[in-house]
């Protein structure tokens, strides 16, 4: 079976070896990708992979994709939707990329993207900061009276507005309905007001574990894989899964790519169940395909059972929110405008 | 409409077969009603998204210039026009069918209005709700469930009371689906529709309600309407506040119900063409929504905001309560199709939040927070509108799974119902029925007696003669018959009087009825009556229609009483 898969990939790949520039996020995540995806792909196809890093913004995509020869891009799904609408990504022929589209459910195969993994934005805290009662819910993130200290938050309206309403007791199923109203946005920013003077903003996904480790903040928002990697590296931090926001990471192909065939071969390889499972064994981002889940075993080296650390592991509790990518994509301007107005309104947030 | 004379079905199946038939019917009806309710809800949500009624859809077009404001006004107006066209061209009834029609059909053992009108009513409700009218979805869902359940009337399955039970099953499943609340669905069917409890009805409605719940909650994983976290009532004196809130909600519920009735009456008399009335209401709604978007549609976002402290200011709450009452009355009165259940929930929860804001604003009394007052208000206002205090209490319990909040709501609901029942009536449905001539306020037996005209008991086999017939011939006919008096008319058939056996002159009858006399009227008039029979005379022409005997009136009375007893005490 493996032989046939390899043969198929080889047949689909141009005879002459090529190079692909794959754009990703760096840090522990990129290290896991290199071992699980990039190196095996090169080994099987002979196509060399060069990686580039970006901050996930559309601005970076517009400015750098053509100039730096980006081919395949690792993206958050909402950004991929916006980039697709803006003509920055190549439309995909999903039938040619996968024979099992239903295996991706509940993730959606959108026009220019192919789901690859599931991650969660979670809150983590430095245990030393709270020797007594520990934070357990997302409401505790906003409660600086019970849990004093700075909060490290991504400088973006993504996720924090959702958290604000979850902390007000809004059930996950209604968060986006309420955030769609002016009243809901006002409520969310009112909640943010409660911690305005305690915020440290971060922009690099690798920052939150560092900020917690060096004691600059007592709690931080961040990605579950990054916190897991920091824990493995010996950083004393605890993750609170309550209120986690689950999002999809997708692959897209830059419209300006000069190696479309190789890019498509990469997508086929990267979204095979065994490739997905290999990544999840190295960093706890869940696979986007259902059939990959049973393949996930122990982390190489440490022997940690990785399925327990995935964002959608049932033992993490029922209070979580699945990010509505379409909504996010279509409300970027509004949320950014309101967020910047809030930032400008009395204070710099820490 | 003349009700059927109660009768026992000629071919009653064996108990085992009856039980199997009832359970199968309950499963099928429960499943069908639940799927239909889910389908209706999804169609409405889809329309809300496509037509930019749902905030979640509107916000995504926020950058698209005037698109959202134009849609806000144009969509409800266009919806109104479509609804008016549905009334004109698709519906024989020409109006929305809802819980009052279901109650009437079940209480008088009649079929529901024709399927075409029912389907048109559901379509009109879907358009009304989908295009953002300020009306409720539960009334149409109840009717849809009842309509599907009512189809068992067409089957001859040898089960007494099956048509009523089938309808109740459909209603129970629809409510269980709508609220994820099977116990509330079961109780609603008994409390509002059947109005009695019997093993025969209880078992199948339970099965239907659970089927609806399983489909909605387990198979389709529908989210609950409401989830609140509540730590419990912190202070004993708050129960007095809940009672006071109940009293105020009763007053507001009465204002709401009277306004709906009044606007509907005025609309019927207005010079505005019927085809334009819903569109005008839709346009008024849209114009208001430009400034107050919470009034559009069912308002599930506002429902949630009302439980969050500080989401609304007191002024905003007061304005929204007034606007929602007025616009709902306008939409329903001017012909949009929909119910009053959802708007009542919204008005009540907003008013409960307003009440808490006022109490909290005084700073005199610590309270347990806004959520419990909002929910008490919601149920205290809704229960008198739909006439189902027990159902509303159970809905709170099943939605919140919180005993403390249920007890609090119970206090508010009880006080609200006491006042509203005393000064308005059991429910808006019952008052609407009473205005159509069906008064259920004094009980099912009285209503049935009142609804049955005396003409169903009359005979034309009496001794009838004209005034130009020789008296001796009339006497000879009398002597050869069991009758002791003859009924004399002129040659045109107009009733002139009674000729007793052996008498020579006409005498006026001791009593006479006309075609509008009911069995109840007759029973009351018969006190102290002695004689053969009572002539029934056409009130307009004076023509003799026939004669009713005392025995036939009593027989009709006993038939109805026995029929009700059979229903109420029936076992599987």
TrEMBL record, chain A:
InterPro entries: SBP (IPR006059). PANTHER family: ABC TRANSPORTER SUBSTRATE-BINDING PROTEIN, SPERMIDINE/PUTRESCINE-BINDING PERIPLASMIC PROTEIN. Gene3D superfamilies: Periplasmic binding protein-like II. This is ABC transporter substrate-binding protein. It holds the Pfam family SBP_bac_8. Keywords: Signal. The keyword Lipid metabolism does not apply. Residues 1-17 form the signal peptide.
TrEMBL record, chain B:
It is a multi-pass membrane protein. It is found in: Membrane. GO terms for molecular function: chloride channel activity. GO terms for cellular component: chloride channel complex. Gene3D superfamilies: Clc chloride channel. Pfam families: CBS, Voltage_CLC. It comes from the Bacteria. Keywords: CBS domain, Chloride, Chloride channel, Ion channel, Ion transport, Membrane, Transmembrane, Transmembrane helix, Transport. The chain crosses the membrane at residues 20-46, 66-87, 123-144, 164-189, 201-220, 240-260, 272-291, 303-323, 330-358, 370-396, 403-424. The keyword DNA-binding does not apply. Residues 506-563 form the CBS domain. This is Chloride channel protein. It comes from Roseovarius bejariae.
């Amino acid at each position: 079976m493996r032989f046939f898969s390899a043969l198929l990939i080889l047949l689909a790949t141009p005879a002459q070896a090529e190079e692909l520039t794959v754009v990703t996020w760096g840090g522990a995540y990129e290290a896991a990708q290199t071992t699980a995806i990039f190196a095996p792909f090169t080994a099987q196809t002979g196509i060399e992979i060069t990686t580039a890093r970006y901050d996930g913004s559309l601005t970076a995509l517009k400015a750098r994709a053509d100039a730096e020869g980006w081919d395949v891009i690792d993206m958050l799904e909402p950004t991929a939707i916006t980039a697709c609408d803006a003509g920055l990504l190549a439309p995909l022929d999903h039938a040619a990329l996968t024979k099992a589209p239903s295996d991706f459910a509940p993730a959606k195969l959108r026009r220019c993207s192919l789901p690859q993994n599931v991650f969660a934005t979670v809150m983590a805290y430095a245990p030393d900061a709270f020797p007594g009662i520990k934070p357990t819910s997302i409401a505790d993130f906003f409660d600086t009276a019970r849990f004093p200290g700075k909060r490290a938050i991504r400088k973006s309206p993504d996720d924090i507005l959702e958290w604000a309403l979850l902390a007000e007791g809004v059930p996950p199923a209604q968060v986006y309905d309420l955030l769609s109203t002016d009243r809901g946005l006002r409520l969310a920013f009112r909640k943010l007001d409660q911690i305005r003077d305690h915020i440290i903003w971060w922009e690099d996904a690798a920052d939150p574990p560092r900020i917690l480790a060096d004691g600059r903040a007592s709690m931080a928002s961040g990605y579950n894989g990054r916190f897991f990697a920091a824990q493995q590296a010996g950083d004393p931090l605890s993750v609170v899964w309550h209120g986690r926001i689950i999002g999809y990471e997708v692959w897209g192909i830059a419209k300006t790519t000069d190696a479309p065939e190789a890019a498509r071969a990469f997508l086929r390889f990267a979204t095979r169940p065994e490739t997905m499972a290999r990544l999840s064994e190295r960093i706890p981002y869940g696979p986007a395909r259902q059939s990959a889940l049973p393949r996930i075993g122990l982390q190489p080296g440490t022997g940690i059972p990785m399925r327990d650390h995935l964002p959608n592991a049932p033992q993490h509790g029922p209070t979580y929110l699945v990010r509505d990518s379409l909504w996010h994509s279509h409300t970027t301007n509004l949320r950014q405008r309101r967020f910047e107005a809030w930032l400008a309104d009395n204070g710099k947030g820490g | 409409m003349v009700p059927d004379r109660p009768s026992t079905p000629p071919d009653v199946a064996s108990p085992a077969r009856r039980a199997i038939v009832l359970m199968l019917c309950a499963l099928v009806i429960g499943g069908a009603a639940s799927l239909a309710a889910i389908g209706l809800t999804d169609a409405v949500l889809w329309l809300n998204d496509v037509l930019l009624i749902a905030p979640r859809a509107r916000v995504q077009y926020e950058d698209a210039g005037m698109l959202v404001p134009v849609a806000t006004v144009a969509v409800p107006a266009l919806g109104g026009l479509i609804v008016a066209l549905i009334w004109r061209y698709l519906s024989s009834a020409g109006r929305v069918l809802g819980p009052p029609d279901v109650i009437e059909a079940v209480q008088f053992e009649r079929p529901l209005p024709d399927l075409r009108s029912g389907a048109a009513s559901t379509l009109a409700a879907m358009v009304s709700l989908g295009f953002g009218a300020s009306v409720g979805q539960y009334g149409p869902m109840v009717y849809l469930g009842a309509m599907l359940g009512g189809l068992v009337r067409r089957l001859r399955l040898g089960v007494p009371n099956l048509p009523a039970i089938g309808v109740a099953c459909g209603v129970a499943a629809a409510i269980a689906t709508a609220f994820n609340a099977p116990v509330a669905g079961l109780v609603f069917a008994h409390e509002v529709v059947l109005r009695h409890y019997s093993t025969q009805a209880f078992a199948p409605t339970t099965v239907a309600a659970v089927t609806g719940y399983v489909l909605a909650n387990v198979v389709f994983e529908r989210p609950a309407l409401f989830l609140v976290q509540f730590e419990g009532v912190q202070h004993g004196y708050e129960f007095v506040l809940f009672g006071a809130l109940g009293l105020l909600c009763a007053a507001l519920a009465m204002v709401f119900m009277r306004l709906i009735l009044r606007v509907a009456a005025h609309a019927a008399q207005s010079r505005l063409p019927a085809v334009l009335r819903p569109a005008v209401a839709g346009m008024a709604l849209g114009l208001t929504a430009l400034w107050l978007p919470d009034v559009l549609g069912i308002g599930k976002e506002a429902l949630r905001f009302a439980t969050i402290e500080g989401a609304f200011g007191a002024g905003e709450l007061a304005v929204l309560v007034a606007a929602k009452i007025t616009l709902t009355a306008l939409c329903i009165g001017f012909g949009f199709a929909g119910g009053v259940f959802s708007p009542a929930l919204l008005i009540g929860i907003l008013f409960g939040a307003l009440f808490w804001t006022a109490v909290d604003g005084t700073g005199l009394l610590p309270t347990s927070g806004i959520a419990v007052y909002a929910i008490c208000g919601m149920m205290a206002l809704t229960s008198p509108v739909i006439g189902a205090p027990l159902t509303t209490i159970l809905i709170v319990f099943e939605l919140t799974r919180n005993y403390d909040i249920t007890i609090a709501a119970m206090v508010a609901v009880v006080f609200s119902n006491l006042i509203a029942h005393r000064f308005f009536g059991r429910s808006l449905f019952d008052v609407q029925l009473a205005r159509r001539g069906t008064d259920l306020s004094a009980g099912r037996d009285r209503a049935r007696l009142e609804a049955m005209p005396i003409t169903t008991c009359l005979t034309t086999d009496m001794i009838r003669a004209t005034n130009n017939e020789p008296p001796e011939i009339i006497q000879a006919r009398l002597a050869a018959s069991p009758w002791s008096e003859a009924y004399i008319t002129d040659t045109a058939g107009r009733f002139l009087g009674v000729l007793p056996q052996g008498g020579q002159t006409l005498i006026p009858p001791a009593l006479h009825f006309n075609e509008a006399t009911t069995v109840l009227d007759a029973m009351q008039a018969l006190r102290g009556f002695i004689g053969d029979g009572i002539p029934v005379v056409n009130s307009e022409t004076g023509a003799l229609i026939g004669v009713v005997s005392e025995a036939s009136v009593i027989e009709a009375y006993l038939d109805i009483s026995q029929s009700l007893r059979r229903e109420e005490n029936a076992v599987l």
